[in-house]
């Protein structure tokens, strides 16, 4: 996820200048592969009928149901053929500029470590299950793949405008915790949701959170919490619409506009919101 826990300012020993490390796939233990298999089976069952069909298509196309932690080389070869993206290993959270630079060049950075069996449901730093199971399937979807690259380019521009916080909110409420309309119903697509057992039902079915139509400026003004389920989720119409809304935005005037606008706390509804469901906010 995009949290800012422990980011070093220089690549640690063994990492390249762009912070990448070898995945060292042959070094995973049988226990580590078993943790992946357990999480994979549990999430695939949970997501049936809840996740956007493009996600399932991505899992299939990338042959991700093959047992064990995926080998990034093999995964990248399939992904490259689909959309020109690759998956590269990093030691943990990397600085924003490095993160954006990779995305802008169609490289998705993924942690290589996997949570321990006693940490199945909660961990602070993104591991290979979150990063690869959560994020990679949709990178095989051409429009979403373009959106991720545009986000990386937008990040590099946002750094020059001192607007990283705004952009991080966009990432949070789309790439990590986004919902999407599928006909009359809503489906999951955010990686933070689809890689979480608890949040994959909470985000879709619980009466507590608000579900609000996606609006770029609204999202960029909304704070988020990193320590619990979200109090509001934003719903996009389609990946085309998400890409169009963000690509069409001319970032300099957008950030100038937002400079005077107050932040919005999670859990708050505005007059102008398109409300899909008004939450009880019981779970806070
Ligand atoms: N590094 N490895 C990794 N993964 C992330 O998701 C990540 C990161 N560094 C910065 C970051 N995310 C975010 O803070 C940016 O989206 C703003
Ligand atoms: Fe993430």
Overall description:
- This protein starts with 29 loop residues before the first helix and ends in a 7-residue tail after the last strand.
- It has helices at residues 30-47, 53-61, 72-83, 96-104, 128-135, 142-160, 164-176, 191-194, 197-205, 216-220, 239-248, 251-259; strands spanning 86-90, 107-111, 179-182, 185-188, 210-213, 232-236, 275-277.
- Helix 6 (142-160) runs antiparallel to helix 7 and helix 6 (142-160) runs parallel beside helix 11 (239-248).
- A hairpin with a 2-residue loop joins strand 3 (179-182) and strand 4.
- It has a single domain (25-277), classed as Aromatic amino acid hydroxylase (Phenylalanine Hydroxylase).
- It has twelve helices and seven strands.
- The structure holds 7,8-dihydrobiopterin and fe (iii) ion.
What integer value in Å does the Rg equal? 18 Å
| Domain module tally | 1
Total number of helices = 12
Order of helices and strands: HHHEHEHHHEEHHEHEHHE
Listed once per kind, the bound small molecules are: 7,8-dihydrobiopterin, fe (iii) ion
Point out poorly predicted stretches. none
Structural class: alpha/beta
- Give the strand content: 5-15%
Name given to the CATH homologous superfamily: Aromatic amino acid hydroxylase
Helical residue percent band: 40-55%
**Which CATH first-tier class would you pick?**
Mainly Alpha
Highlighted features:
alpha/beta; Phenylalanine Hydroxylase; five-stranded mixed sheet; binds 7,8-dihydrobiopterin; binds fe (iii) ion
């Amino acid at each position: 996820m995009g949290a800012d826990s422990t980011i070093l300012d220089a690549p640690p020993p063994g990492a390249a200048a762009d912070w990448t490390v070898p995945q060292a796939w042959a070094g995973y233990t049988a226990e580590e592969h078993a943790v992946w298999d357990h999480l994979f089976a549990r999430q695939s069952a949970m997501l049936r009928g809840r996740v956007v069909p493009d996600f399932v298509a991505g899992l299939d196309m990338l042959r991700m149901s093959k047992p064990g932690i995926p080998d990034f080389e093999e995964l990248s070869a399939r992904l490259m053929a689909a959309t020109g993206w690759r998956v590269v290993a990093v030691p943990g959270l990397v600085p924003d500029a490095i993160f954006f630079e990779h995305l802008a060049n169609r490289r998705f950075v993924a942690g290589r470590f996997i949570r321990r069996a006693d940490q199945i449901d909660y961990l602070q730093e993104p591991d290979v299950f979150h990063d690869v199971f959560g994020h990679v399937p949709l990178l095989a979807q051409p429009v979403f793949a373009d959106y991720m690259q545009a986000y990386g380019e937008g990040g590099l521009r946002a750094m020059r405008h001192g607007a990283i916080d705004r952009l991080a909110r966009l990432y949070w409420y789309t790439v990590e915790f986004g919902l999407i309309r599928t006909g009359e119903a809503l489906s999951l697509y955010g990686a933070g949701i689809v890689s979480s057992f608890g949040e994959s039902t909470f985000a879709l079915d619980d009466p507590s959170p608000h579900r609000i139509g996606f609006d770029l400026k609204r999202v960029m003004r909304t704070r988020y919490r990193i320590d619990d389920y979200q109090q509001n989720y934003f719903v996009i119409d389609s990946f085309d619409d998400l890409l169009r809304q963000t690509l069409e935005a001319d970032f300099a005037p957008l950030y100038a506009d937002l400079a005077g606008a107050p932040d919005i706390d999670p859990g708050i509804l505005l007059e102008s919101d398109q409300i899909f469901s008004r939450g009880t906010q019981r779970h806070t």
